[in-house]
């Protein structure tokens, strides 16, 4: 599947020189194929010779960001291996600021939700315990 794309096509993709339909098809192939991601990262590195940060280059030729539910799934560990690999590549290697901020936001929400659940459970437990105590007194 990976070998169906030549380095020339990867270059063309980076130059946004492919027809729109091919761009979209390529993007979805990249999302599903970690191997293709690695090759793309190599091509980028070779082209730019380290002159710009990978992140900078990526923002210029940006693959679309994962959707927020994918980011949520990434945190929960419910994504497929390949989808998780894509998020990791996008956020950790490419350093997309938007998605990093999104991930932090989701993480904070999860923590707040977890804290609220504990508080609710504690209250429930205390009120049940109180109820039981009262029951015993009767
Ligand atoms: Zn992003």
Describe the model.
With 138 residues, the chain is an all-alpha fold. It has seven helices and no strands. It is elongated.
Secondary-structure-based class equals: mainly alpha
Tell the overall outline. Answer: elongated
How far is the N terminus from the C terminus?
A: 74 Å
Helix content: over 70%
Mean pLDDT value: 78
Classify the beta-strand content into a percent band.
under 5%
Small-molecule binders: zinc ion
Low-confidence parts lasting 5 or more residues at pLDDT below 50?
none
Topology (SSEs and partners):
Layout: H1 7-14, H2 20-32, H3 34-48, H4 54-60, H5 68-76, H6 81-93, H7 97-137
Helix pairs in contact: 1-3, 2-3, 5-7
The chain binds zinc ion.
Residues 65, 90, 96, 98-99 line the site of zinc ion (ZN).
In short:
The protein has 138 residues and is mainly α. Helices cover 77% and strands 0% of the residues. The structure holds zinc ion.
Keywords:
mainly alpha; binds zinc ion; 138 residues
């Amino acid at each position: 599947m990976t070998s169906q794309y030549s380095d020339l096509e990867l270059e063309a993709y980076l130059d946004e020189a492919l027809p729109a339909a091919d761009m979209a098809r390529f993007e979805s192939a990249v999302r599903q194929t970690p191997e293709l991601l690695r090759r793309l990262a190599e091509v980028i590195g070779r082209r730019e010779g380290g002159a710009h940060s990978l992140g900078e280059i990526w923002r210029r030729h940006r693959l679309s960001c994962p959707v927020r539910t994918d980011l949520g799934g990434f945190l929960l560990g419910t994504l497929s291996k390949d989808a998780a690999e894509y998020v990791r590549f996008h956020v950790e290697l490419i350093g997309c600021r938007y998605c990093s901020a999104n991930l932090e936001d989701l993480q904070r929400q999860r923590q707040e939700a977890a804290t609220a659940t504990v508080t609710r459970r504690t209250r429930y437990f205390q009120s049940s315990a109180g109820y039981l105590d009262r029951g015993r007194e009767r």
